[in-house]
Amino acid sequence: MGKPQNIYDDPDFYEGYRSLRENPVNYNLLLEHPALFSLLPDLAGKDVLDMGCGFGEICALCTQRGARSVMGIDLSQRMLSAAKRENKGFGIQFEQMDMSNVEKLGQNFDLILSSLAVHYVEDFAALAKSVGKCLRPDGIFLFSQEHPIGTCHIDETAPYWVYGEDGKAIYHPLNDYGRPGKREITWFVDGVVKYHRTFSQLVNALTDAGLTIERMEEPLPSPELVAQYPFFEKEYHKPSFLLILARKK
Ligand SMILES: C[S@@+](CC[C@H](N)C(=O)[O-])C[C@H]1O[C@@H](n2cnc3c(N)ncnc32)[C@H](O)[C@@H]1O
Q1: pLDDT per residue over 37-59, tens digit each?
Q2: Phi, psi (5° rounding) for residue 105?
Q3: Whole-structure pTM value
Q4: Angle between helices 124-134 and 199-208 (to 10 degrees)
Q5: Does the Cβ of 235 fall within 6 Å of ligand 1?
């Protein structure tokens, strides 16, 4: 496996991503985070690891929900600097590291979570195995990622949405779904690397790692959210996110 790309330390990418997240109307805040938080188990007295913790907001939430210890790991020094600055006083331990090396921490956790970061990891099967080894019995791996029906496209010039005469999206063309692997996309900057995996690959990787899938979510907007922000209606054609909660037996 090659060295992971650390795109969040690219200044132009970082600025673009930061302003996206500072806009209160963003997909993370309105769709993905509520679904993730609804799946969080009781954290009282638990040891938690957040992989790809970014600005550390979820780490802070876990301490507020009573976790005994919270560690956040991330590849990006810029993201971690913001996390440390913005979440002082919560007693969170932040470390710069590749989540693929999670076993090197030599620690065990009750909950390992990851929000919208695992699609940057080349070998998900290896990651799932490492996570399995770092979980205590009955421990939980809870993660969200970009939905496989959104990560599949290879040709960036192909239309992502087809619109009707009234300007409303009517469908999302699906192509190259059955060709898992590296994707290079333009998002704030050119050459952002992500990895597409089919649904069955994700499920089998977790099962092979000795984890049992208990819940999956593909969060959809409420009618109120669509009424306020009509562009969210497209989520009913193609959900942006997939969340999976799996447990070590
Ligand atoms: C979309 S951001 C999500 C940040 C945070 N989890 C949240 O939901 O607000 C993805 C994060 O994953 C981190 N990341 C990407 N690849 C990683 C890897 N291999 N190991 C650790 N962190 C990684 C990035 O640096 C970035 O901070």
Answers
A1: 999 999 999 999 999 999 999 99
A2: -65, -25
A3: 0.97
A4: 30
A5: no
